[in-house]
Each structure stands twice: as structure tokens, then as C-alpha cells.
Amino acid sequence: MNRKCLIVIVGLVLGMFLWGASQAHADAVFNVSLDTSQLSVLHPGASFALDFQLNDGSGSGDGNNTAILTNFLFGGGSASGSPDLFGGVSGNLSTTVSFIDKAFLNEFTHGFYPRHAPQLRRNPRHECRCRPLS
């Protein structure tokens, strides 16, 4: 293979990689569950906060990335007060939180009361009628 042909092939391969990088798109869905019951046991009645950030990797604030957070369930707890929003963030924990990387730092902070400690009920009349295995 001659040198000119090799340069053309390398150029085409490099061009495909660069073209593919500019056309990249991904949708990712994550389900996250946090058990906050111990917070209400250790600090009854206290308010805590959730903090989320979307940082612009290029630093240009070009708005080419988005993130949407939905379906916050508190299992007996609740959101508290109004959220603190910075950059391209809108919404609250009661509805939907939307991020667009319009600034280098895009931050959302919102207080919440954790769920109450789970109650365990037992029937005091329950008896175990067991017999040894032979």
C-alpha cells in the first residue's frame, strides 16, 4: 500500500470518528431509591436537603446537555420550603426538576422531611406451635 492511500484511509477513519462524536446522543434512565428512615430516627423532626448538580464539561454554557428528575416519593415524608436554584435549573421536588447546562455550575437544593420510622406491628396472641423434627 502506498503512502498516499494510507493517508486517505487514516483521514477517512478519523473523519468518521469526528462525525460520529458530534452526532452522539444517549437517553439513560436510572431508578434510585434511598431509605431515609434512619434520619428521622436519629434526628426526629429535623429537615434535610437533597442537592443535585449538572456541570457543563466544556465550560461554555452551551446548553447541549439536559437532565430531568421526576417522581420523588417521600413515603410519609415531604418536601419543605422552596428550592435553591442556580444556573439552568427549574422545578421542585413536588413536581419535576429540569437541568440544562446553561452555566458551568447548575445546582438544585431542596429541603425535605424524611419518612417516619417504620412501625412494626405484631399480634401478641400469635403462638408458635412447633414440634421437633425426628
How would you describe the overall organization of this protein?
- The protein has 134 residues and is of the alpha+beta class.
- It has a domain of 82 residues.
- It is 19% helix and 28% strand.
- The chain contains two helices and six strands, in the order ααββββββ.
- The strands form two sheets. It has a three-stranded antiparallel beta sheet with strand order 1-6-3, with no helix packed on it. Strands 2-5-4 form a three-stranded antiparallel beta sheet, with no helix packed on it.
- A hairpin with a 5-residue loop joins strand 4 and strand 5.
- The chain is elongated, with a radius of gyration of 26 Å.
- It starts with a helix and ends in a 21-residue tail after the last strand.
Residue stretches low in confidence (pLDDT < 50, at least 5 long) are 117-132
Largest sheet: 3 strands, antiparallel
Given the C-alpha coordinates, what overall shape results?
elongated
Order of helices and strands: HHEEEEEE
Radius of gyration: 26 Å
Counting helices, strands and paired strands, the structural category is alpha+beta
Instruction: Give the strand tally.
Output: 6
Number of helices: 2
